[in-house]
Amino acid sequence: MANKQKQMLAVWGSPGSGKTVTAVKLAAELSKKKKNVVVVLCDNTAPMLPALVKSHKLPEASVGGVLTAPGLTQELILKNLIPFDKNPYVSLLGYKAEENLYTYAEYGKERAVDMLVLLRHIADYVIVDCTSALTGSILSTAALEVADDVLRVCGCDLKAVSYFASYLPLIEDHKFKPEKHIKALSNTRPYQGGGEYENSFGGVKHRLPYLPAVEEQAATLRLMEPLSGKEAKAYDPVIAAIVGEVFGDGQ
Ligand SMILES: Nc1ncnc2c1ncn2[C@@H]1O[C@H](COP(=O)(O)OP(=O)(O)OP(=O)(O)O)[C@@H](O)[C@H]1O
Ligand SMILES: [Mg+2]
């Protein structure tokens, strides 16, 4: 059991820290193994599908329908997966345009867990982009509990320090294993004094730099495209190191 292949990573952290961008970049890196990756986008306040995929490529599909349908089947999940641009290995499962917290009936933790279990059968790898506000997303809380690992994305700002002071007590329970989280400092600008923030987060293992090219990719729906030059050199090895730590480097 100790060597069981890890398959599911939850990406969670402070608001605006780069959880979604990091989740997508991790998926792109994993797809180089020529294995299927599903990115689950939990944001039910600002649906992320329209912020990641050109609208004319978005079919009628939503994770909200999967979580609240009377019955849950693999077929239902497959029907709601959206291909991510031209990458044949990466697909998305998220809320669609104009949806909000009240679009669907409530669902329970059991349904969220069942969906994540089925996703393990459907995909080689699953990355869950959790909401910062766990209290508003049962799916995010379930993912924190059942994922093989959690990447805790720590924004390099005082808001992040404040957020963790408020939210970490909510996941103290041993079922969340917060001490096992893999911590990454994210969106780090040179003036931000990363060292001080690292200390306040109890040390971090990975440092994702702030790069205008990443910001531009996100703003222009091109996150699936590779970075190049100096920026690739600064960013890609960090993403590769996280993938290596969680999923191993092998095929
Ligand atoms: N490494 C980076 N370099 C430059 N910009 C980044 C980087 N990571 C994220 N960003 C930018 O920071 C902003 C927030 O990123 P993102 O949406 O991924 O954060 P989030 O943690 O998912 O936010 P939310 O809490 O709203 O879900 C976006 O504008 C994104 O383009
Ligand atoms: Mg996000």
From TrEMBL:
Coiled coil: none annotated. Residues 16-166 form the AAA domain. The lineage of its organism: Bacteria, Bacillati, Bacillota, Clostridia, Lachnospirales. InterPro entries: AAA_dom, P-loop_NTPase. Pfam families: AAA_31. This is ATPase involved in chromosome partitioning.
